Amino acid sequence: MALPKNAIPSRALADFLTMQEAVDKPLQEVTLAFLGDGRSPIAPSLATGAAKLGMDFRIVSPPIFWPAPSFIADVTSGAHEHDGKFAVLEHVGAGVLGADFVYTAAWLGEQETGWAERIRLLAPFGVRADVMEATGNPGCKFMHCLPSFHDSGSKAGDRVAKQFGLDCMEVSDTNFEPKASVVFD
């Protein structure tokens, strides 16, 4: 399985170690759902690692942000080879059901162009309380690769709050900071 040029496999490895510390079962029994831009640097890194570890990994995103079909086929094959599962879905409820971890990444950089369209497309994939509840797993943990736009404390967060009337983007502040978050573990 080849990673895209912008992949960050060392970050994914660190995240898998954090996951192992946070649950009382082997990673082969862990379900991880990534919400947001499935082409972001971390999503394919997690997908490749999860496939090699035999995990159940799901990218939950609008189809326009799905990884390339060849990458999806590659990871699906690798997951099956290691008794894992891989899916790319657009329905949040189905994508997070049974998840042990819900993971997201920033939707925008400070200099991002095309904000309005990205935010419009990704808004239904923000990690809010209802998403964590939809997992059906009261022990589900939240992860984020940082930086995060979870409030109006950054230039981008302030701009989004003022321009789009949103209190957060990829994750709500109530999910970023609570005991279910392992962002800083």
From TrEMBL:
GO-annotated molecular function: amino acid binding; ornithine carbamoyltransferase activity
Keyword Ubl conjugation attached: no
PANTHER family, per the entry: ORNITHINE CARBAMOYLTRANSFERASE, ORNITHINE CARBAMOYLTRANSFERASE, MITOCHONDRIAL
Listed InterPro entries: Asp/Orn_carbamoylTrfase_sf, Asp_carbamoyltransf_Asp/Orn-bd
EC code: 2.1.3.3
Name of the protein: Ornithine carbamoyltransferase
Function: Reversibly catalyzes the transfer of the carbamoyl group from carbamoyl phosphate (CP) to the N(epsilon) atom of ornithine (ORN) to produce L-citrulline.
Enzyme class: transferase
One of the protein's GO biological processes: citrulline biosynthetic process
The entry's keywords: Transferase
Keyword Hydrolase: no
Cited Pfam families: OTCace
Boundaries of every Aspartate/ornithine carbamoyltransferase Asp/Orn-binding domain copy: 29-185
